[in-house]
Amino acid sequence: MSMLRFTNVSTHYGQIRALDDVSLHVEEGEIVSLIGANGAGKTTLLMTLCGDPRATSGDIFLGERNITHQQTAEIMRSQVAIVPEGRRIFSRLTVEENLYMGAFFATVSEKQELMHQMFDLFPRLQERRSQRAGTMSGGEQQMLAVARALMSQPKLLLLDEPSLGLAPIIIAQIFETIEKLRKDGMTIFLVEQNANQALKLADRGYVLENGRIVLEDTGARLLSNPQVQNAYLGG
Ligand code: ATP
C-alpha cells in the first residue's frame, strides 16, 4: 500500500491545464523528489494534493483513502503536513507561538514535549524562541516552517522548494535535516528546483515538464541521465 498515490490526475485553472495526467507514488519511508523548472506545475501538484485547486480528473490516495474530493482541513488531519513555498510563517508571532500554532490539536503538555523535540532538531530555534519570526534570517525562517509542520506529527511531510533563496551552507543544513527525519521514519515528498541536491537525497524522483511527468527513476539514475543533466544540472 503506497502512502501517497496519484492516478491520472489533471488540474485546470480555467482553460489552462496545469497538471496533465499525472501518476506517481510515494512508499512508506521513502524520500521522493519531484523536480521541474519554473511554471512546470510543481506547486499546483502539491496544492492539488491539499485539495485546492481540486483535481479535474483522476484520483489521489493517502494510504487506502481516496482524498480527491475531501476538504483541505480533512486532508490535513490525516497525518500529512506541508511546508509551503515561501514558508508562510506568522511573522509577527514569536518562534514559540509559531510552533504552538503547528500543534493546534495537541494538549498543552504535548505541545511542550513536541516543542522540545523541535529544539533538539533545530537548536537555533531554541536560542530564538522569543524572537518575532519575521525578524529572523531566511534560513531560520525555513527551519521554523519545517518545525511548525512537524509539530502536527505527520507521517508524510510535503516540502515545496525548501532551498529557495537560501545560501548553500543553509541549504546543506536543510537537506541534512530532511535526511535525519527520514532516518527517524518520516516519509518525505520533496518538490524542488534545486535538482542536484534533491536527487542526491532521493530514493526515487520524477521530472515534471509542462504539467506532465516525463521521467521517473531512482535518484541516482536521474542524476546521471543526460537529459536531466542538460536540462536541470547545467550540462
Ligand atoms: P515555480 O517553481 O515557479 O513556483 P511551479 O512548477 O510550482 O513553478 P505552478 O506554480 O504550479 O508551477 O504553476 C503551473 C502553471 O499554472 C503556470 O503556468 C502558472 O502560471 C499556472 N497557475 C498557477 N496558479 C494559477 C492560478 N491560480 N490561476 C491561473 N493559473 C495558475
TrEMBL record:
Q: Name one GO biological process term.
A: L-amino acid transport
Q: One of this protein's Pfam families, by short name?
A: ABC_tran
User: Which superkingdom?
Assistant: Bacteria
> Taking every annotated instance into account, which residue ranges of this chain make up the domain ABC transporter?
4-235
List each coiled-coil range: none
Q: Which keywords describe this protein according to UniProt?
A: Amino-acid transport, ATP-binding, Nucleotide-binding, Transport
State any single GO MF term.
ATP hydrolysis activity
Give the similarity note. Answer: Belongs to the ABC transporter superfamily.
Quote the protein name from its UniProt record.
Answer: L-leucine ABC transporter ATP-binding protein /L-isoleucine ABC transporter ATP-binding protein /L-valine ABC transporter ATP-binding protein
